[in-house]
Amino acid sequence: MSVYRVIDVIGTSASSWEEAAREAISTASGSLHDLRIAEVTKQDVVVGDDGALLFRSRIQLSFKYAPE
Fold this sequence. Notes:
The protein is of the alpha+beta class and 68 residues long. It has one helix at 17-28, and strands spanning 4-13, 35-47, 53-64.
């Protein structure tokens, strides 16, 4: 039997929501092991003072829980 934990992470990108999601998952996989599911729960865009766009994707990640 397995137990999984779910956390929220937010990735950012100057080019797309997909790239922001990829960045969030890639970065989280550096410290979390046995990632199982990534679900995009929210997407938004921050508009900078100069008009530059910053795409953000909020991701729920589930990973296998390993008690300490």
